[in-house]
Amino acid sequence: MFKIPNRIIVIFCFVIALLAVGSSVFFYTKYQSLAKKSASNSKDDVAITVAAVGKLMLLPSDEIPTVATVSDAEKLKGQSFFAASQNGDKVLIFTQAKKAVLYRPSSNMIIDVAPVNLGTDASASATQKESAPTFVLYNGTNVTGRTKAYEVTLKGLIANAVVVNRDNAGKRDYAKSVIIDLTGTKSAQVSVFAKTLGLDVSTLPEGETKPDGADFLIILGADKK
Predict the structure, then answer these.
(1) pTM of the prediction?
(2) How many angstroms from the chain centroid is the CA of residue 165?
(3) How far apart, in whole angstroms, are the C-alpha atoms of residue 98 and residue 117?
(4) Helix or strand holding residue 114 (H, E)
(5) Secondary-structure class of domain 134-220 per CATH
(6) What is the pLDDT of residue 123?
(7) Under-70 pLDDT residues of the chain
(8) Residue 67, SS3?
């Protein structure tokens, strides 16, 4: 049985603590027992988890993450990163890349991704996780109800997704569905979402109106039923 050294377990607990902005000490005490129970994951389990998550999003290629299993999700619900967690979910911590990934093996879904800061002072270096991504959905076909149906699909694949508006596209003959980064600053995140949702990344098509108040625009084409 492969055992993670105590030094790594301590680092893991500390990193997880940093995910809870404004309550890092509270989070540490709540999560410490989970880390102790889960840090003994075998090499095979880590490899299987990394391989599965790697098919859904681009992962750092130069380090092996620390992996833990959520065994008592109710105790973690007060922390934003674990708000949608369930027992059996996996947490991948990439200390060099400073990234945490919450993954659900039962449905093969990425639940959340958050940046992590490995400073020496937990209260000073705690990094706020990215806010929930906001989406506008455009129907680029003549089939009615397409955006309403796709909102369910979207929230099933990206648990913290927020749909702020649904409307018809300027054109109704899109063959392929696309996702657009409306902010121009979320290239990494839009790539992850595109892979998760099976969409092409695009710029705003000519003739389409740029919606306000959202991070991303998804235009649904004939390929999405």
Answers:
(1) 0.48
(2) 21
(3) 6
(4) strand 109-115
(5) alpha beta
(6) 34
(7) 1-42, 116-130
(8) strand
Tokens of 207: 């003739």
The domains of the chain are located at 6-125, 134-220
In angstroms, what is the C-alpha Rg of the chain? 19
> How far is residue 175's CA from residue 173's CA, in Å, rounded to a whole number?
6
pLDDT digits (tens, 9 = 90+) for 165-205: 999 999 999 999 999 999 999 888 999 999 999 999 999 99
Among 72, 97, 94, 67, CA closest to 82: 72
Are residues 8 and 66 in contact, defined by beta-carbon separation less than 8 angstroms?
Answer: yes
Q: How far apart are CA 98 and CA 212, in angstroms?
A: 31
Sheet holding 90-94, edge to edge: 66-69, 90-94, 99-104, 109-115
CA–CA dist 211, 225 (Å, integer): 23
Number of alpha carbons in the 13 Å side-chain half-sphere of residue 95: 15
